[in-house]
Structure formats: C-alpha cells, structure tokens
Write the structure tokens for this entry.
Amino acid sequence: MLNLITDPNLQWILLGSMLLGISTGVVGTFAYLRKQSLIGDTLAHAALPGICIAFMLTEVKSVGLFMIGAIVAGMIATVGISWITRYSRIKQDAAMGIVLSVFFGLGIVLLTQIQHSSYGNQSGLDKFLFGQAASMTAKDVYTMTSVAVVLIVVCALLFKEFKLISFDPGYARGLGFSVATLEQLLLWLVTIAVVVGIQAVGVVLVAALLITPAVSARYWTDRLGVMTVLSGLFGALSGAIGTWVSAGTAQLPTGPLSVLTATAVFVASVLFGPQRGVIAKLVRRRTAKRDWAAENAKQSGAGVGASAKERGVSA
Amino acid sequence: MAANKSGIAPLTVTNMTVAYQKKPVVRNVSFEVTEGELIGIIGPNGAGKSTLIKAILGLQPSLSGETLVYGKPYKTQRKLVGYVPQRESVDWDFPTNALDVVMMGRYGQLGLFRRPGAKEKAIGMECLAKVGMADFAGRQISQLSGGQQQRVFLARALAQDATLYFMDEPFAGVDAATEKAIIQLLNELKRQGKTVLVVHHDLATVEQYFDSVMLLNGELVAYGPTSSTFTEEMLQKAYGGRLTFLKSHANAEDEPVLIAGRG
Amino acid sequence: MSGFWIMLTGALVASCCGILGCFLILRRMALVGDAISHSVLPGIVIAFLVSGSRDSFFMLFGAAILGFLTVFLIQLFQQSGVQNDASIGVVFTSLFAAGVLLVSLNAQHVDLDLDCVLYGEIAYVQWNTLVLGGVDLGPKAVWLLGITLFIIVVLITLFYKQFKLCAFDPALAAAIGIPVALFHYVLMGLVSMATVSSFESVGAILVVGLLIVPPATAYLLTDRLGAMIGLSLVIGVISSVGGYYAAAALDASIAGCMVCVAGVMFVLAFLFSPSHGFVVRKLRQRVSAAREAY
C-alpha cells in the first residue's frame, strides 16, 4: 500500500494497467454489442505467427517489432473472419474458431522452426505470449498511453458511426455509411488493444479485458454512452486493483489478479444490476406473482386458492 | 381417435397469466375451444398472442394457469398437439432438406430410440404434397423462398398428425400462392375434425378465414364466433385508439415486449 | 511404429472432435471447446496439489470436474441473461486466471509446465503406455481416446434425432417433449470429455482446431447433417495423417501441422466447394450475368 505512493516503478505499472483497462473496456463495448466478445481471444492467438515471422525476418528480439508483427497478423485475421462470414454460410463464432486455431497452429509450427534452427534463444517470445505486467517500464507505459489515447479519441470521434453499425448495420448501409470499412476499422482498433494487452496479461487472459468490463457495464445502463464510459471505468478499476494487490504480495502476478477483479465486478453486476440483475429479476417476479394473487383474491374471493388446491389433489 | 368422439373440449385454458417484467403480458386468460374450429388469435402488437401460445405449450413459464388438452394436462397429451413456430425461430442454413424437416414432425411419435425410416419418409412426402411442395423434397432449406419455408413448416406440423394445432403467424410475409395453400390446408384440417389456433395479423382476412376469433389485448377481450365477435365495437375495445392506425400499417409497429422475451 | 501411434492418436482426437464439432457449429457454440480446454488448468493444478502426484488419472479427474463446471457456469450466466459468447469468454478467462494464480501461489511445489498443458506433445504419446499385469497394451492416450470415441458414437447414434432436432429447432423439440436442457448438457459433457482426454496428448489448440475446422469444412461441402458428420470425420483423419508427414518433412510441431493441414483444406473448400465455394459462386454469377446480357 505504502510502496504504491513511494515506488515510482509501481506508479508506472499502475498507470499502465489503468490506461490499458480503459482502452480495452471502451473498445470491448462495441465488440460485445456486435456479438464478437471472443474476438479478443481470437486475435490474441492469431498474433503468434506474426510475432514469429517478425522475429524470423529481423532476428531481433524487440517488443516494438513483435507488436508490429502481431498487429499485422491480427489485421489479416480480422480480414479472414470478415471474409469467411461474408462469403460463406459459416457463422461468426465458427469463423473466429477457425482463424484462432489455424493461425495459432501456424504460429506453433513457426515457433518450432525457430527452436530447431539457428535463431538462438527465443525465450523472449514466450514472455511476450504469457505477459508480464510487473516488468513494465516507463517506455512501455508511454506506448500504452499513446495507444490508449488514440483508441479513445477514435472511438469518441466515430461514436455515432460505431453505434449505428453495432445496432443495425443494414440501416447504416442504407444511410450511405461504408459499413465494411467501419467494421474493419473497429476490428483493427480491437487488434491494437489486444496486442497491447497481450504484453500485460498474456494471450489467454487478454480476452477478459475486452469482454468482462463491457458485459458488466451492460447490467447498469441501457445507454450506449454511459455503458462505454462505465466499461472503461471497470477496466481501469480492475487494472488498478490487480496491480495494487499484486504489489502487496511477492508472488502474485498482476494479469490474473486484474482478470479476477474484473470477474468479481461482473458477478456483482449480474447479481445486483438494477434492471437486468438476477436479484432485481427475482424480486420483480415475486412482486408480480404476489400482486397478481392479491388482485385475483380481490376479484374472485377465494377462487384462486381453491383451484390451486384442486390441482394439487388431481395431480 | 378416442379423444375425438368424447365431446371433451380439445383445449381448456384456465387463468393463464404470464409476466416478463412487472406487468403481466397475458392476464388471466381463460377459454375453452370447440372441436373442429379454425380460431384466429387477434390483437395489437404486444398483446401477448405469441406469448399465450408459448405459455400454453410450456415454452414460456407462466405465473399461473392451467392447460388441459382433451381434459388431461398438456404434458401427458403432447402427441395430440402440433406446433408451427414463427419462421425466423430457426437457422435456415442448417444442413438438411425439406423432406428431412418434415420428417422431424414424426420424432415425437417415434419415441426414444427409433429412427425415422421408410414409413416416416412416405408420411413426409405425403405431407409435402399436401402443401404443394412435393417437387422440393430434396431441396436444401436455405434455397427455399420464405413462403416455401413456411409451407415446409406446415407440412411438418401435418406430419405430427396432431388433433390440435397452434400456428404462430403462418401468414406473416408469405406470397399469395402460399397464403392460398395455407388456407386450403386449414380447411382440410377442419374437414378432418381438427382444431387449429392461428395467431393472425391481417384484420382484412379474418372474417373470411376463421370460424371463431379471440381478441387479445393482454386480457381476453372477447372470444366467440367470428360473426358476433369480430365487430367494430369489440375491435375498438381490443385495439383502442390505435385501430385506424393499425389498419393502414399492420406491421409497422415494433413488438418490444416479445423481442425481450425471445432474447 | 511411433508414427503409427501418433497418427492413430491424432485420428482418434479428430474423430471425437469431428462428430461433436458438427453439433457445436450448428448450435453456434463453436468456441465452447476453446473455453473448456483453457479452463481445465485450475483443475489440473488442484488435482496436483491435493494428490501430490503427477499421475495422469488425478489430473484427468480434476480436469473433467473443471470441464463440467465450465459448462455449468456458461449455462448459468446465459440463463441469467448474458450473451452466449460473452458468457463463454468470462467463464474461461476467470478460471484460467484462477489457475495461473494457483500455480504462482504454489510455485515452489508445482513443477507444471504450462506450455505443455496448452500445447501438449503428441510426439510423446508412445512413451506413456498402459501396462496391465506386465503386458504392454499400447499408449494410454489411445485407450482413453478410444473409450471416449466409443461413448460419443454410442450416444450420438442412439439419440441422433434428438440431438438433431435440438440443434435445428429447440422450440419444437421442447414442445414435443424432448428434454432440451438434458441433451444440451449431454452434448456439452461429451465435448468436455473429448477435450479433457485429448489435451494431455495433443494440447488445447489442436483440440479446438479439430473441433471447429473439419466440421466447418464439411459444412461447406454438403447439405445433409449425416454427410456433414461423415465428411468431417474424413477431413479430420486426413488432417492428422497429413499433418504427421508434413511435420516430419518440416521438422516442426506435429499438432501445429495437423491444424495447418485442416486449415488448408478449409481454404480449399471455401474457395472451390461445388455448392458453396466462393470461386464457384462467382463464376456462376458471371455466367448468369452474361446470359442476361444476351
């Protein structure tokens, strides 16, 4: 707790995690509404061949190059998903599954090629895959800040367009928007967010940064604007708490802690959300039943009770 | 069938109430259906027409209410009941052809392990022929037009060989040929002494198609023979001030309540 | 001989996955396999911590429990109104995060290779054999997968029409009295079984690949469910055999190559399928456009 204020390195990590949380939360809102929640998982896996090829081409272990490779691979993957869903009868979930597994399979093949040939030590690669927020440096945070700002600004500028293509792409086309371009742009924003996120929490968990805050936010509001802001806030909160708990204990990694924090927020939202929450629904159902019984009793005396009893006997 | 001659009403619904949210969508609906009739269920959007059918079939939990089919609880009488869901409720890209979909109607009768065979195939072809779709038996279902898909669904309901049918908007978005085929089929079913409840949207054709109408607006507004029930006064009661508006844009209005229920 | 066992294991995984994958794709739950294969991690770790041994029986048991828990949680959240895919994503990431935390908390006791859990190593299949009464009965993985495949085939054959109707039109299935929820859980239970018995030998990603890619390829080639399942089996087996030889030629990961071969076949079907292929449809459009012009 104390070291949070004094340790400058920790402040960087905290800032980085929060910025990451905000940007993935904001972008994730649109992915969720477009029923592409698992796009994060897909793109994170699809990044592997890109990273491998970047390494094979340059033989340099540089985070910047890896990110470029990952982003290029991710963009190709998004094009692949769009193509499969547009030009065949395969649905989105299967298209994502195909791209995920085939790209990752290809990545593994390339990885074994790297291991078996003379490229030397490739350990930097798996660090990139499993993520390590704790070793984030000031430079990484600069990258994250700029990426986060870009993502948020683009989302803010294109808010009404993204809203329209998330809600009713057919109508958007009718209004003269280039839906395909906008969809692709949105997917690329997601790709960038995912690739930055991989660095912090790793391939598997980055999916959570996109989905969990967005789903949680959906439980508190019916307005897209509010939802986007809330989702960003939840993301930042998860990142901050994850970093804070992780800093207090020696062995706990930041990524999984952030994800579990986000999950806790999610469970709380599912339970306590004012309109859609489970408890709210149960209460509503119970009051409806009670009101109904009361109304019936008023109207027809003991009629309802009697018929219920009859049913019990006949059954 | 024994139940046919017994004189017991094919369907008795008592105190059916369904609520998605706080306010019941279907309130305290009770009615008894006369055998061998075509019954139109009519009402404004959001009146709970589809919901009522789903609740009767146990596809939608109800707050209260009881369904008797030929005097016995619905759960024990499933084989007597046929159901035609709305066309959009299934994925038409499913890898199967028209005949196969019609044969699905026999699955209930086949029991746990038996698989459809030559007999089911024959029944399927016969039912397809009845809706004028025999030539399309081997066609992949996504390559059928909307009206043809609807006819396949009707053929499937026929294959169920039920005595009581529920149809959820079979006339929605179909071509004139299909509409004609459907109405011929309904009359054929009626001749066989079967009872059919149809959720219907088009007020202009009600008098022509149905023996009885049920006017629904959350509550049961009126139920009885078309001639005495389908009157200006009763319609005013069911549709309220929206009647004139509805007559010109029958399908323009959204159905928010039902969409929430499906999701 | 080693090649034979590897190809047989691959083919068995492909068969289990190929059958189940068809139903997953048609029910739009393609990524459930991905979820299960990741979320078994905490189960394996807990089994390891409790039993203190790396015996594969305990690990399988732990993994199986977590597999079922995953399926149950996904369904639970879905019923409380969370979108299907979002529910899958939230559940598996949370469980995986919990698994990673468990590993880090017990870092000094746990000597588990995370990569191996995720990527598996099909090349080692032959060394882990089942020995009963001194007789070597062949690789354990082959037995395990063989039994799994048998159960899958028996259940799917017996209840084919129920599974089919539940996938096509759950409302009608429910209306004629088929217990839709029960069949859902049986299907998910089978997917969970197939995933758990596969991941140890071939790794999570190959399982996911074989669950989705061959059925999707088959889906582009036929319009009958039965034929789709058959084709998906054939494509899966070709992928595992082809993948093995490709890997031998390239000196690369066998599992990775198997998925890649499946991917290549998918691309071919996507482009050239006689009924649904991209190229074929474009050609047909061009022909009909030309005809109209005259």
About this structure: The radius of gyration of chain C is 21 Å. The longest helix of chain C spans residues 225-250. Chain C touches chain B at residues 26, 28, 158-162, 164-165, 167-169, 171-178, 219, 222-225, 227-228 (CB under 8 Å). The domain at 2-293 of chain C is CATH 1.10.3470.10 (ABC transporter involved in vitamin B12 uptake, BtuC).
